[in-house]
Amino acid sequence: MEEKDLEEAYDAKSITVLDGLEAVRKRPGMYVGSTGTRGLHHLVYEAVDNSIDEAMAGYCKHIFVTLEEDGSVAVIDDGRGIPVGEIPRFKKSALEIVLTMLHAGGKFGSGGYKVSGGLHGVGISVVNALSEWLEVEVGREGGVFSQRFERGKAVSKLEKVGDTNKTGTIIRFKPDPKIFEELEFKHDTISQRLREMAYLNAGLEIILEDKRDPNEPRKETFLYKGGISDFVQFLNSSKETIQKRIIFVKGAREDAEVEVSMQYNTGFIDNIFTFTNNINTHEGGTHLIGFKAALTRTINDYARTHGHLKDKDGSLTGEDVREGLTAVVSVKMQEPQFEGQTKTRLGNPDIKGFVESTVNARLAEFLEENPGDAKNIVNKALTAGRARSAARQARELVRRQSILESSSLPGKLADCSIKDPSLCEIYLVEGDSAGGSAKQARDRSFQAILPLRGKILNVEKAGPSRVFSSLEIQALITALGTNVRDDFDIEKARYHRAIIMTDADVDGAHIRTLLLTFFYRYMPELIEEGYVYVAQPPLYRLTIGKKHIYAYDDTEMDRVIKENDGKKAQVQRFKGLGEMNPEQLWETTMDPARRNLLQVNIDDAVSADMMFNTLMGNDVESRRTFIQEHASDVRFLDI
Ligand code: 0RA
Hints:
Layout: H1 3-11, H2 14-17, H3 20-26, H4 28-32, H5 37-56, E1 62-67, E2 73-77, E3 86-87, E4 92-93, H6 94-100, H7 124-129, E5 131-140, E6 143-150, E7 153-154, E8 159-163, E9 168-175, H8 187-200, E10 205-210, E11 218-222, H9 228-235, E12 247-253, E13 256-264, E14 271-276, E15 279-280, H10 286-305, H11 318-322, E16 325-333, E17 338-339, E18 345-346, H12 350-369, H13 371-404, E19 425-430, H14 432-441, E20 447-452, H15 464-469, H16 471-480, E21 497-501, H17 506-522, H18 524-528, E22 532-534, E23 540-544, E24 547-551, H19 554-563, E25 569-573, H20 582-590, E26 598-599, H21 605-616, H22 620-630
Parallel strand pairs: 1-10, 14-16, 19-20, 19-21, 21-22
Antiparallel strand pairs: 1-2, 2-9, 3-4, 5-6, 5-9, 6-7, 6-8, 10-11, 12-13, 13-16, 14-15, 17-18, 22-26, 23-24, 23-25
Helix pairs in contact: 5-8, 10-12, 14-20, 21-22
Bound molecules: 3-[3-(1H-pyrrolo[2,3-b]pyridin-5-yl)phenyl]propanoic acid.
């Protein structure tokens, strides 16, 4: 784009947004979501998005992201470089304007589809506003140009500092401690995100270097020539698949393109990830609706024309054809409209038909050309259809049973007396004996207790009909009140906190994972709404003189002992919840004023999915590696 055009792009809106960066510093949450960890990471994503835009426009092949020892980040790309010429109207360089003016919505890239990522579309100026300092270096028109900013304001002029025949942009910034409460980047969070970006942009190489620990520098390269097909292969890597070839379809029109990749596995769960301009559209939208419609139609058509479904047979449902499906749907388009609670549902109505017709045509072709794979897919859907009838019967049985009983709530639930769900919580407790202690310990006005016997069913391995006939799971569903899957209704939740309380040992961790797997697969909205928590019972009780101190892990115990030099500490280790008396259980784990709850959240559905697969699936080898790698990391729950 010529710098003259850039000026035009700023023409109309410019006056009102001139001092926009002050607004960003005043209300950072509005622009990056929060001033906690989430917002901090958003800065990196926003910076990287600009380079990804260059890649989408076809000008950039490599992006380097470096986490530096001093807490700053460098994002380097080999794109065209931010324009450096003066824009006469402002008497400033285009670069300074890009860095200091808030521009809402679509960017002004050229070539390709003029698409642009970035959830808020607010651009690099927001990163500048929220950084203690930010330095830009651009290679362009034979020169190297550089400029420095502090808290959004230029503190040097744009200067030519050297010569080069290369082009590209380097942005270094240090998040402002006056704005962010949390300043430490999580390696895994950033690495996951960059990996995802590389999958979504086939052929783009993204290199992450983490130099924060000088003794242990880390470097990862993400480059996927197969794009979203490699993504699907990765998602299915710990599963057994039923196809020889991964399906890939692509379609393009004037202002949009769609890519879909899919492969079935032998499991029961479907995982469809949708993206628009590289943004994960968690809430789905018109592209997802179009994809689902095409899938149901095409597989039914194929099954009928090839004699798998007879005239008298009913059609396969959407759920039938999605069982065991892993798919990635990626749309790149101009002016996406994002709707929904978290602005992650694609709203553009015409995208439904575009995705639907593309998938109808190309998927039918694939099935015709790959009869072996087609047969496996159709058979899988037919089996799912038969299981669906069985599951319906099982569900109806549950419903009938609950109507027969005078109270539909499970017998072993010790309910609370208050009826307002927003004030109520339910403890899901491992074992009847700990359940008994918890019943004595609780404040019965607002705390309900549901003891769960032994290990609940692993829903990753069992189909719906077995899941619905499990008594423990029936009790859980009726106690929570929300129902599951398509019938899920958050408004019916009987408690706004579901707290998993298990022993602090391996069995406890396993039961906790089984419960989380159930929630993730059958009631994901419950997690998304932030209703699911994990209680943190202490591991030790230290008695020092007359004082009792609880320690939640070994590090904490060591610290307490060190701080108490001189006096002798008596240490009691709790092997399970059952070893605490009700008073101790209340003090440490159930009293809202003193307990320490972990809220479970799924920021990244892809990594959550990987985790549950690995922990719960059939692949013993990858499960072992995962557990070894994460053994001491209790926070893996904080997904
Ligand atoms: C404005 C216009 C053009 C490119 C860019 C901005 C640009 C921004 C960033 C931020 C990080 N890396 C970037 N690379 C490019 C188009 C320039 C042209 O037409 O030559």
